[in-house]
Write a structure and sequence with these properties.
Radius of gyration: 25 Å
Bound molecules: glutamine
Distance between the termini: 57 Å
Number of strands: 23
Strand order of the largest sheet: 13-12-14-15-23-22-21-18-19
Largest sheet: 9 strands, mixed
Amino acid sequence: MDTKYIFVTGGVVSSLGKGIISSSLACLLKARGYRVTIQKFDPYINIDPGTLNPYEHGECYVTVDGHEADLDLGHYERFTDIQTTRANNVTTGRIYRSVIRKERKGEYLGKTVQIIPHITDEIKRNVKALGLSGNYDFVITEIGGTVGDIESLPYLESVRQLRWEMGRDALCIHLTYVPYIKAAKELKTKPTQHSVKQLQEVGIQPDILVLRTEKHIDTAMRRKIALFCNVSPDAVVQSIDVPSIYFVPVAMHEQHLDEIVLSKTDVPKPWGEPHMEPWMDFLHRMESARETVTIGLVGKYVELQDAYKSINESLFQASTYNDHRLNLVYIHSEKLTEENVDEKLRDMDGVIIAPGFGHRGVDGKFVALHWCREHDVPTFGICLGMQCMVIEYARNVLGLADANTAEIDERTPHNVIDLMEEQKSVTEKGGTMRLGAYDCNLRPDSLAARAYGKTEVRERHRHRFEFNEKYRADFEAAGMQCVGENPVTHLVEVVEVPGKRWYMGTQYHPEYSSTVLHPHPLFLSFVKAAIAYHDERTMVDGPAADEKKQN
Ligand code: GLN
């Protein structure tokens, strides 16, 4: 079968969830046995989102090959279990950089370099690159932004050309919004009509419409939209609000989105049925869970929940597989002080200390960690969270009152966390950290090894600073063990304090590799410990105390 290309565009407003629709379709096609990948084209000029503040664009996701990527790639992986790479996320910045490099090398043979055909050709080359590898039956390409944006135009022009060249091997799914006007008690189709018109103006006729809506869109309205938009009525699908994004693949399958795609791209029959049993088991657990586990997430970007997207999802998946609902409490590290820490953390069954950069909010992380360690609350420090764990231990157990990371205090006499040697000469900010997957060997008797069920793991990184080897023996003598290290460089990857209920820090980011079908072992183990701690406390305080807390 020739590779089929599915383009997903969006109209009316942004944030409708193109990533979730693309992921859901990929999930269904994969469950039918097809080889699928998803890529995202982002119309901004940044080379990658690595230099973007999380407030701008949410979390920066990291692929195994060390690309700092859009957070939608996280959805792709969580929904499909496929691993993405730098080829799965392209920005306008990268397209222009590559065209300009070619121009400098003289590759355009004296021609004037223009948006059409040079930029569009470069976009098309990137769209087809994954398909040409021969590894995929379907390449789903999500075009970032909204139809009508100036930035999206070269992408839409490329889609137009590709559809012309590929015929029935390509199709376009357009995601729009159907607002419900409360005063009129009516759903309105006009914005969708306009958005499809805009797409038609640039030469693209969508094959399938997915309508985001809060209320059910009946058949009559779907027919009306189909008629106005030149789309067949059975190819108008609604995407109504659901309690969890993980219901979306099922909702899409119920409306035959996967079959419409197979039929429109002439995929030979028989298609069979998607094997969704493990996915359904996950949804079933999610719906039948009655008990709640409360996890506090201490970080500085808590106002924007997308900033910790992968951590949220990992915790949610781990809670579901532990048959619990997740009550995730965001705790602003900048507002956490010695005075209020007890009040803020005492109801937590477990605490996550978030990754981050810079000094803002770190003092709150130290306060939280001190409290958690003294109260023996299950605690998980991730990246900067792990580094703070080490610093807090140095200050309060090793007695090095001025211990710090060189990131915050370059002149600290006790740089228990310091810049990696190879980072010292780096001047450029973008893409220069220790990025992507590296091996880590775990001590067989460690909590981490028990959680993973093995001693050799490979996890993704995104950091510049590291545990300072000089202090390793002092930490170990004082109780904090370095239980995971890189087999080649011996950089410390995991620290633990044995004897505690669950106290672990990882220099790497396990959250990037937790998926619906393969939840991450460390999150499973951490949440399990949090549940055990909750039950222990309920037992001591009596069920009445727990009930009171819930109310
Ligand atoms: N700022 C720290 C470093 O660069 C931690 C990074 C992170 O938490 N991702 O090492």
